[in-house]
Amino acid sequence: MYQKILITTDGSAISQHTACAGVKFAHQMGAEVLALFVAPEYQYPVYVEIIPPSYPSEEEYVAQMRRMGEEYMGSIMRAADKCGLKHSCMTAFSDSAALKIVDIAEEQHCDLIFMGSHGRSGWGQLLLGSVTNKVLSQTAKPVLVHRLIKEPGT
After folding, report:
1. Could you tell me which of 98, 77, 94 has the C-alpha nearest to residue 86?
2. How far is CA 1 from CA 6, 25, 29, 109, 112, in A?
């Protein structure tokens, strides 16, 4: 049914549990896995004439985000490898994670986007916004939303 599944992660415990569920789902489908971490774009300090020496350069920031992305996606890659699935990972940069997820799914010809929901509702969802809701509203591709019944570690 699905040939290539995009699994997103932000590095949080909830996201890691969702990613593991995504790999299990891909295994059931016999699908390839593409893991994605979207990092915010580099921001220059505002209202500062001279960049402080402790502030990372753009190259340092990009390298650090790529390392973090590899760390976050490592468990996905190990799980996919253990299941014998074809897999790859990608770190992308955007201040709009939802739009970047949709763009990557299109560019990489993914059949399904597998992502989690933190389960916020009411004002929490309205005030904070939801990457998952934004993805759902921006793509015509199927999106499988995985929701945890309880927080990891409880």
Report:
1. 77
2. 14, 12, 7, 14, 10
Q: Which amino acid is at 89?
A: C
- Alpha carbon distances (Å) from 143 to 47, 94, 101, 123, 125: 41, 20, 11, 24, 19
Which pTM was predicted?
0.86
Residues 37-57 pLDDT 10s: 999 999 877 766 776 777 888
Residue 132 CA to residue 143 CA, distance in Å, equals 9
Which runs of consecutive H residues, i.e. helices, occur in 3-42?
13-29
CATH class of the domain at 4-45+53-147: alpha beta
Q: Which residue has the tokens 């996905």?
A: 76
